[in-house]
Amino acid sequence: MHDTVSSVRDPESTQAWLVGSGIASLAAAVHLIRDARLPGRNIHILDRHAETGGGITSAGNAENGYILYPGSLPYFHDECVDNLLSLVPSASGSDKSLLDTIRDFQLSETPPPGSIAKTRFLRNKGGKCERSEANHLSIGPYNRLQLMKVLLEGESLLGRYRIQDFFGDEFFGTDFWALWSTTAIEFQRCLRKHLPDIHSLNNVSTLDRTRYSLYESIILPISTYLRSEGVNFHFNAKVVDMRMTLDDNLKGDPTTVTEIVLREHEEERIVNVDPNDLTIVTIGSPNSGYQLGTNSDPPPYPSDPDDFTYGDWSLWFHLAQKATKFGVPLNFNSHTPESTLVTFTVTLHDSEFMLLYQVLTNDMPGSTTSALLPRVHKNRPEVIPPNTTNIALVGQFTEIPRDTTYNMEYSVRGAQTAVYALMGLPKSPPRTKRSLLLDVFDLLAEG
Ligand SMILES: Cc1cc2nc3c(=O)[nH]c(=O)nc-3n(C[C@H](O)[C@H](O)[C@H](O)COP(=O)(O)OP(=O)(O)OC[C@H]3O[C@@H](n4cnc5c(N)ncnc54)[C@H](O)[C@@H]3O)c2cc1C
């Protein structure tokens, strides 16, 4: 996979430029410090916002309302996030890691037998609120056959299809689909990764939980740790382009980043990048272009969602114009109706709703996006694009074979891949879990 990046970098003399301050960049910074021994002062995190967190920020107050982007999904962590959290000291000042603190909280929250929360989906059936039950996921013989077809199909072929090409209308009304709803390729990857857990997928007791929001429990302690290590944060700094040398021996293919074009506090400046320095770039953001509504006004429609300078897309577009190995951002930012996700938060001034919810689900409430749009092979670039020497691409829009997007694990896995490859470390993230039998079927399907 790493065609050109092969040399081991000297941590003392390497400067690392990380574009974005979401979990992908924060994870990259932690692994640069802890695994590659890069001094914190050599790490520079650039974000166009005024604070860290990207899509995992939360803000607001009881008067004007709260903004909570994440928190809707299970599996915010798996092996890669666990590894990251084990390297960050706990905010409590003890010897414990952030992972220990989260585990301690999860253990202390384990519900007594018989009171296990059994659902995270409620659906409106004829005006009546019903729980979606993981024990009753019948989809009928035809859909079972179609499901096998999706599971066993080669991924390159699947990319051309929509999920509607495999299933009829009644399938999309089943509880089974409510648990998985996504696109054809992503559906297959989710099935392959999570099907063995089907009976517990809907079970709140198995969801990963943190004491506070993901922002407060994960992003803030990591940011605090990085600051204590001397990492440089540059906010209100948008990277608009990265200039690269073109290799004549490779028909003018861009290989090495030499300059970062930065708009910082509305002023443009150039950062020189030495060939020995490294850059790790979060391309795009699932929350890019979000619009906020109020209690009286709906969110306005984005003024020009197809404008590629809009939101977080412009850098990826500039990279993609240099070479096809940087992927196809147009596939992900130009389908606004299909990728729009509407969420809302409710500010409650008494406990009546919470009590009714608890009776229905045995739980307290916790809280389709562009990353899940249909795609074909090479729409998403590899973490280390071929024939490059000092750039890695991370986030929800890069291609990580076998893994499923729309969660922190994906961005952290990308960050670990990037750091290990660019620093020449002899390690790689753990393999994404999957059945051996499916590997064999893949071999047969791809021929
Ligand atoms: C509605 C919703 C709910 C979600 N719920 C969950 C959940 O419950 N659990 C979960 O694990 N995941 C959830 N996700 C996925 C979540 O978005 C990702 O896990 C996480 O945000 C990915 O982090 P990231 O660092 O890759 O990207 P982001 O969080 O998007 O951060 C990227 C940052 O880089 C900045 N940036 C991008 N380009 C540039 C540039 N050129 N110059 C400067 N700055 C730039 C962006 O502005 C942003 O601040 C959810 C996503 C959505 C949309």
From TrEMBL:
Pfam families referenced in this protein's UniProt entry, alphabetically: MCRA
InterPro entries, sorted: FAD/NAD-bd_sf, Oleate_hydratase
GO biological process, one term: fatty acid metabolic process
GO molecular function: FAD binding; oleate hydratase activity
Coiled-coil portions: none
SUPFAM superfamilies (UniProt xref): FAD/NAD(P)-binding domain
Name of this chain's protein: Oleate hydratase
Species per Swiss-Prot/TrEMBL record: Penicillium subrubescens
